[in-house]
Design a protein that fits this description.
Number of helices: 15
Strand content: 15-25%
Radius of gyration: 23 Å
Structural class: alpha+beta
Largest sheet: 8 strands, antiparallel
């Protein structure tokens, strides 16, 4: 238990609204989105970069460990304390003063505590949006800390690609405030320092303010479900869509039939779009968009998509078994219900993997055989971003009578699948969920010694204090 004088010292910095130390008040900050959680010594809720700096300086000077927490929507244990009761949570949820839109630069400077949904709601009247599309609703600082990707990565890239500048607090005894970038898209005056902080979970510094690139809000959208004949055909369909749709192509999302079944069972308001209710083994959601309103005499985007699919239909070998063009809102509603559907079916062991695009379907098909033999009680309920090589490889394990999680089985599954993904398919164990306690073992095992040494040296320069849930 943390000494009372430290609680008093932090309280003097933050005031009564800025520091939580009672168990009932801290509970929501101690548990993550999926299974991970612990006990916090306190929850610090600074409302400015200066206050973050003061808290960090105090904690580092007194050897108090801090875990930065943004929207707490992560799935790898990167934003919650451990079970020791000696780590403090530094929440960004009160960092909400700065929201500066630069129309001419098509950029936004925003404090780390704004959620993605609010950012885009405020931008919508200007015809702009931050082009990261997720099932969750994270905060700006957390999106940077984990380098979030999302369903439209294929067109717009990840947070790294869309970050123009950062303000950070380093984990040193001074709580040094560092400005990296001024919203410039081109600046070759030295290393692009902000990139060294993105995706590191706060280990090198805590993000307090972000400058993001914005994109034009789509004015026309067309979506379709594609049913490939087999795994290799999915890759052929991706290639054909990229060639024929060009920059119109926003998304190419794969959904397993099992994931769709669970989503439809969990959310009865969703309509089963497949003839006779027969769900295919695998379905691909494609989306095309334009940023301008329909023009007189211009072919509609639905018509463009129909022509593309008609051409693909005639390809030798028949890679496309079926296709359904439908309302974007309905089609995306099913896609975004997949995670909750899997959770409703049992305990989920979720792996966030990425591969070269040609390996995605090969990995899926191989794992279907291997897991059936090694772990017959486990069901694959996966989905992912085939267009960028990402797979949310969710494994559903039947619940025990008391609803508890078999921690040993989950660990064995995670290690088994990760080993095959990384060692035999040259994949990554962290596609877009970032690093956290759940991935620490894999980081330690798979990261080359020289890179770990370089990361540790950089951390000593920037944040030698115990800041972040991951040890780089």
């Amino acid at each position: 238990m943390l000494a009372a004088d430290h609680i008093d010292g932090l309280g003097a910095i933050l005031g009564p609204q800025g520091l939580l130390s009672q168990p009932a008040d801290m509970a929501s900050y101690e548990s993550g989105a999926r299974y991970d959680g612990g006990r916090a010594a306190f929850v610090a809720r600074p409302a400015s970069t200066e206050a973050v700096s003061q808290v960090v300086a105090y904690c580092v000077s007194h050897s108090i460990a801090l875990v930065p927490q943004s929207g707490n929507t992560g799935l790898v244990g990167g934003s919650t304390p451990d079970d020791s009761g000696m780590q403090g949570v530094l929440s960004l949820d009160r960092l909400r003063s700065t929201f500066e839109l630069d129309i001419d630069n098509r950029s936004l400077c925003v404090d780390a505590g704004f959620r993605l949904s609010e950012i885009n709601a405020r931008l919508e009247p200007y015809g702009l949006f931050f082009p990261i599309d997720l099932g969750a609703d994270p905060m700006a600082g957390g999106m940077v800390a984990t380098n979030t990707g999302g369903t439209r990565f294929l067109r717009f890239g990840d947070v790294r690609r869309n970050t123009l500048g950062l303000k950070l607090v380093l984990g040193d005894k001074s709580g040094t405030v560092l400005d990296c970038g001024a919203g410039l898209r081109k600046d070759n005056s030295g290393p692009d320092w902000k990139q060294l902080f993105i995706g590191t979970g706060g280990a090198f510094g805590i993000v307090t303010e972000c400058t993001f690139n914005l994109e034009r809000l789509p004015k026309q959208t067309a979506t379709a479900y594609l049913v490939p004949r087999g795994g290799e055909d999915a890759l052929l369909l991706l290639s054909e869509m990229e060639e024929r749709a060009g920059t119109y192509l926003n998304a190419f999302e794969g959904m397993s039939g099992q994931a769709i079944r669970h989503a439809l069972a969990h959310a009865p308001a969703l309509r089963n779009p497949f003839p006779g209710g027969d769900i295919p083994a695998y379905v691909i959601l494609v989306e095309l968009s334009r940023s301008w309103a329909p023009r007189a005499g211009e072919q509609s985007l639905d018509a463009v998509l129909e022509e593309i699919l008609a051409d693909i239909w005639e390809l030798p070998g028949g890679p496309l078994l079926d296709a359904f063009i439908g309302a974007p809102s309905e089609m995306w509603a099913l896609r975004h219900a997949l995670s909750e559907g899997a959770k409703s079916a049992g305990n989920v062991v979720g792996l966030d993997l990425s591969f070269r695009r040609g390996e995605v379907m090969r990995f899926r098909e191989r794992m279907a055989v291997l897991l059936a033999a090694e772990f017959p009680q486990v069901e694959i309920s996966d989905f992912g971003h085939i267009g960028d090589g990402g797979v949310h490889f969710n494994l559903v394990v039947p619940r025990s009578p008391d609803g508890s999680v078999d921690v040993e089985l989950a660990a064995r599954l995670r290690t088994y699948v990760t080993r095959i993904a990384v060692e035999e398919h040259d994949g990554s164990y962290s596609a877009e969920h970032g690093l956290g306690r759940r991935n620490q073992h894999f980081y330690d095992h798979y990261t080359p010694a020289k890179l770990k040494q370089m990361a540790a040296q950089f951390r000593q320069v920037t944040s030698p204090g115990a800041v972040g849930a991951v040890h780089l």
